[in-house]
Amino acid sequence: MSHDTMTLMERFNKEFSLSEQSLNGLTETPFHHLRRQAMDIFTQKGLPTVRHEEWKYTNIFSVLQKPFQKSLPFTATETVLSHYTIPDLDCYRIVLYNGVYIPELSLVENDDCSITTVAHAFHEENNAITSLYATIANNEKNPFVALNTALADNGLVLTVKSGKSIDKPIHIMMINDAQYGSVMTMPRLLISVEKNAKIGCVVTSNTIGDNPSWKNSVIECVVAENASLHIVNCQNDTDNATIIETVEAHVATDAHYAMTTVSLGGNLVRNDANVVMKGKNAETHLYGLILGNGKRLVDNHTIMDHAMPHCESSELYKYILDDKSTGVFNGKVFVREDAQKTNAYQSNRTILLSDTATINTKPQLEIFADDVKCSHGATSGQLDEEQMFYLQARGIGKEKARALLLHAFAGDIIQKIPFTSVADWLDRAISMRLHDNE
Amino acid sequence: MLNINNLHASIEDKQILKGINLQVNPGEVHAIMGPNGSGKSTLASILAGREDYTVTDGNVLFKGNELLEMSPEERAQSGIFLAFQYPVEIPGVSTANFLKTALNEVRKSRGEEPLDAMDFLKIMKQKAALLELDHSFLQRSLNEGFSGGEKKRNEIFQMAMLEPTLAILDETDSGLDIDALKIVANGVNALRNDYNSFIVVTHYQRLLNYIVPDFVHVLYKGKIVRSGGKELAMELEEIGYDWIKEEMAENI
Lengths: 438, 252
Description:
The structure holds two protein chains of two kinds. By secondary structure, chain A is an alpha/beta fold. Chain A is built from ten helices and 20 strands. In chain A, helix 2 (30-45) runs antiparallel to helix 7 (143-151). Chain A is globular. In chain B, helix 6 (148-162) runs parallel beside helix 7. Chain B contains nine helices and twelve strands. By secondary structure, chain B is of the alpha/beta class. Chain B has a six-stranded mixed beta sheet with strand order 6-9-10-3-11-12, sandwiched between helices. Chain B has helices spanning 40-48, 72-77, 95-109, 117-130, 135-139, 148-162, 178-191, 230-239, 242-251; strands at 2-11, 14-24, 29-33, 54-62, 65-66, 80-83, 90-94, 141-142, 166-170, 197-201, 215-220, 223-228.
């Protein structure tokens, strides 16, 4: 049966049996059992259509119709990587090339953290890891998580040991290579930050080559008591790329978790950022900056689940949309019955630069506790004419004035990034994009 | 330097200016006074290039060029400066960065090299001292959270930085206490010379005690109904604007 005549589901099932065959009969392990279970869930649920409330604005069917293959040849070299490093960033490095962990290109010489693969952790019966894996990201609620759990042959586990603070951020490079065909990848990562430990991660997503590319990544984060995790998530993929990314986190007592997503590339991008605050006095911040042009669609869905009292969360997502681009922001905040003294803030702000750009925004607050402070707001509009006139009246031309105002709007998010060289690098990338529109 | 000829302008079909004639020569300070709603701020806005108004008749020459055909930035680059009545807040753009961009754009339009960071800082320090602004002020987002007085001082500071040939001060005195008023006036006076001109739009005579005008014009219902020397301002302060209203009523 050729790719053309197979249905999407048949193709995914074929990929699953291919990966099963590669196990050489070792199909009765707990790890594989988990994968088969996930495949069953996926088969049963199927792919979400636009009739599905959570996928109302984002039609993934047409983009996923391409003849994607999971196992394509690739050559990951230092030279290839050099195009995607961040200037002046002193960091460790993890490379996931086509979703596959490349140890020889990964550099984490620090005994305070450990890196292993999911398969290895299951083989070693490493309970600290196996008890967490695939429990943070939810197979039942998100079919793409189920598909990733089923098809990710070998996810990666990064553990920061109890009480350790990692001196440099870890640059996690996720590269899709679409030079040799239509590539589908399933990057999978578990980041476990143990008690009192601290780490920063910079995740970059890039695509090489002109064939269609689809990345379905899942990152699970466990931030233990009094631990801290900051993720900077940079999506710089090309126009032929579809990105479906799920980042789910459990945040414990006194812990701090933040993720700043800067989405500059990819034709269709769907990000799910879900957080459960499982302990008291935890703090979470989700920030997003989205630049849309052409026919780009960027859909951010967030769930901020306040399960315990005295926690604080904030969300700020900013969109700059031009041409025929579309933005979606759907932010759910749950404040459970026990979560008294919750402080939750959510904001979505959009600047529309053309009449044909669209933002669909939907805040959703469900509050079951009575002593809480929650607020949300959404604004969208054009650039402020008074501000434009003020700048022009000082001799600054229209295009430069526009870039200056947009840059200031974006700067709000860039300032949240704790690594100066990453912030500078993104700042430059954004400036270039904004001036490109001149 | 500036020649306003028979200028008529309207906003949303409402005629605001009904034939303004005014000539401003280098080195002169003109005060434009008048009751509320007489068209003072409209005149200032039209000269700076605000697009909300439609010019229905007349023309304006600035240094021999048709001013009304120029974009706001071109006007600024050729030497016009409007000190806003209500300066707008721009979060995320520092005053220093904004001014550096503005100054270099103006320089570029004149075919001059951009200032390097050191030179710019030196000039900025010097001019900030003139308006009694401290350094932290310049690093803050433009006008964001500034008091009324700070905003007006910032306008004059910007004027000092950009060194315009024609500065239009639109009710710069409104909302200022006497100390701030003096600082602003000192700033303006320090910039006065034989080559640049000022149009000071104000409702009250108070500012003109400190910025002494060469000419005073009274604007009423879109026309200059009386012009005179600085003594006209004093007279207006004493007798108010009611006489104009009466005089105009008689003429109808």
